TrEMBL record:
Primary location recorded for the protein, binned into one broad class: membrane
Region (Disordered): 1-28
Protein name listed in UniProt: Solute carrier family 2, facilitated glucose transporter member 6
GO biological process: regulation of glycolytic process
Protein localization: Lysosome membrane
Domain Major facilitator superfamily (MFS) profile: residue ranges: 41-487
Family named by the database record: Belongs to the major facilitator superfamily. Sugar transporter (TC 2.A.1.1) family.
Parts of the chain that traverse the membrane: 38-63, 83-103, 110-130, 136-157, 169-187, 193-214, 276-295, 315-333, 340-362, 396-420, 432-453, 465-483
Gene Ontology MF: a single term: transmembrane transporter activity
Function of the protein: Probable sugar transporter that acts as a regulator of glycolysis in macrophages. Does not transport glucose.
Length: 506
């Protein structure tokens, strides 16, 4: 029987070579101040994720405004509104596809900076929109920029960060995306929809300005034969007392062994396809847990179930819980390890989805669903739930279950799938494979988002939640059998793991 790719730590975990005593990863643990330049470069990069999170939920306050617009050219029907909301995922899929080329052609940093062009153009189109085509094109362009940054930023962050803080920094893209979404919700209470698009230009410009002063990834520079520039970049990123030359030699040796791009014949090599397949399956399973349709239809779901608080308040509370949970993941990822958090995350999401499904199936009906953007196709036909009373504490169940779902996702399967994607992908295929992961992720998100209403109309609301719960169980098994523990390991050591060990995917 072939040995599973468990990656458990312990005395028998001898896959990685022992590190020399004064390794940079160990020195990075001494204090955050030693890595302040890495933190600055990471902050500059993840501003792209802030824009991504902002653009993702831009439609939340905009669709209700346009559905009541007096301008016939901007008045949205339900069908037009659904396309306005979902076309972002198609743009993101195209951005992930382009990242397969740009990540290795321009480099990680320049690819992130390049995303500012479609992002700024998209916001400008939506801010000055005089017809539906401008709204859809602007939405698609901001989605393209989001897909591009989603593929490039995790790779850039993982390649500049020391092993000791790579877990915490790997959670920052997800954290900034959540913060961007919350910023949009807050500004939506104050600004008209056109000015929301104008405000979206600010983080994009700041990102380009800051990144222009940051170094490129030393690993990318070495892969292009720019050794002196790579050493300068690594020296700038590390504290003054770090053993830069030892780390540089380790990276240089790894890059030399992978100096050429992966051919189709080499792609059949297990140490190439195993990590790529694991990363792809993680991105696929992450979306199948239901995160995108639940976030997109969060308020309408609350409108269509019996809840104690107003749906808008419920949605805001869930957003705040999401931010808090990502913060928890950022601080615990390098302490608890990736696999532990993935197990906890999938377990919480399973319980939450199962609870939501059972509540819709057997719980009380809402007294009077009423929402500007309601799931008109949500049907509770065939169920015999009693009407809810306004003060029934049972009606807190949808809010609490959704809070736990978002908390579970944000603690594990949200940030860690992005982090592991950037950690386990082989250097020779990292640019192409990361773009492929984003492409798969957003195509899956688009299919789920568009099919959610059809499934609810045909089978009722509880069916998707039961399906999401089943996927969470699959995620638990997948984590136990396939996902390696990468906590505290350098990227070179992680690559050595796949070169030396076999898995059920072999």
């Amino acid at each position: 029987m072939q040995e599973p790719l468990l990656g458990a730590e312990g005395l028998d975990y001898d896959t990685f070579p022992e590190k020399p005593p004064p390794s940079p990863g160990e020195r990075a643990r001494v204090g955050a101040l030693q890595n302040k330049r890495v933190f600055l470069a990471t902050f500059a990069a993840v501003l792209g994720n802030f824009s991504f999170g902002y653009a993702l939920v831009y439609t939340s306050p905009v669709i209700p405004a346009l559905e009541h617009s007096s301008d016939p050219d901007l008045h949205l029907t339900k069908t037009q509104a659904s396309w306005f909301g979902s076309v972002f995922t198609l743009g993101a899929a195209a951005g992930g596809l382009s990242a397969m080329v740009l990540n290795d052609l321009l480099g990680r940093k320049l690819s992130i900076m390049f995303s500012a062009i479609p992002s700024a153009a998209g916001y400008a189109l939506m801010a000055g929109a005089h017809g539906l085509w401008m709204l859809l094109l602007g939405r698609t362009l901001t989605g393209f920029a989001g897909g591009l940054t989603a593929a490039c930023i995790p790779v850039y962050v993982s390649e500049i960060a020391p092993a000791g803080v790579r877990g915490a920094l790997g959670a920052t893209p997800q954290l900034m995306a959540v913060f961007g979404s919350l910023s949009l919700y807050a500004l939506g209470l104050l600004l008209p929809w056109r000015w929301l698009a104008v405000a979206g230009e600010g983080p994009v410009l700041v990102m380009v300005l800051l990144l222009s002063f940051m170094p490129n990834s030393p690993r990318f520079l070495l892969s292009r034969g720019r050794d002196e520039e790579a050493l300068q970049a690594l020296t700038w990123l590390r504290p003054a007392d770090a053993d830069v030359h030892w780390e540089f030699e380790q990276i240089q040796d790894n890059v030399r062994r992978q100096s050429s791009r992966v051919s189709w014949a080499e792609a059949r090599d297990p140490h190439i396809y195993r990590p790529v397949l694991i990363a792809l399956l993680m991105r696929f399973l992450q979306q199948l847990t239901g995160i995108t349709p639940i976030l997109v239809y969060l308020q309408p779901i609350f409108d269509s179930t019996a809840v104690l608080l107003p749906p808008k308040d419920d949605a805001a509370i869930v957003g705040a819980v999401r931010l808090l949970s990502v913060l928890i993941a950022a601080f615990t990822m390098d302490l608890a390890g990736r696999k532990v958090l993935l197990f906890v995350s999938a377990t919480i999401m399973f319980a939450a989805n199962l609870t939501l499904g059972l509540y819709v199936q057997f719980g009380p009906r809402p007294l009077a669903p009423n929402s500007t953007v309601s799931l008109e196709t949500l049907s509770l036909a065939g169920t015999e739930q009693p009407p809810a009373t306004p003060t029934s504490y049972l009606t807190l169940v949808p809010l609490l279950a959704t809070m736990f779902f978002i908390m579970g996702y944000a603690m594990g399967w949200g940030p860690i799938t992005w982090l592991l994607m950037s950690e386990i992908l082989p250097l020779r295929a990292r640019g192409v494979a990361s773009g492929l992961c984003v492409l798969v992720s957003w195509l899956t998100a688009f299919v789920l988002t568009k099919s959610f209403l059809l499934v609810v109309k045909a089978f009722s609301l509880q069916v998707p939640f039961f399906f999401f719960a089943a996927i969470c169980l699959v995620s638990l098994v997948f984590t136990g059998c396939c996902v390696p523990e990468t906590k505290g390991r350098s990227l070179e050591q992680i690559e050595s793991f796949f070169s030396r060990r076999r898995s059920f995917l072999h």
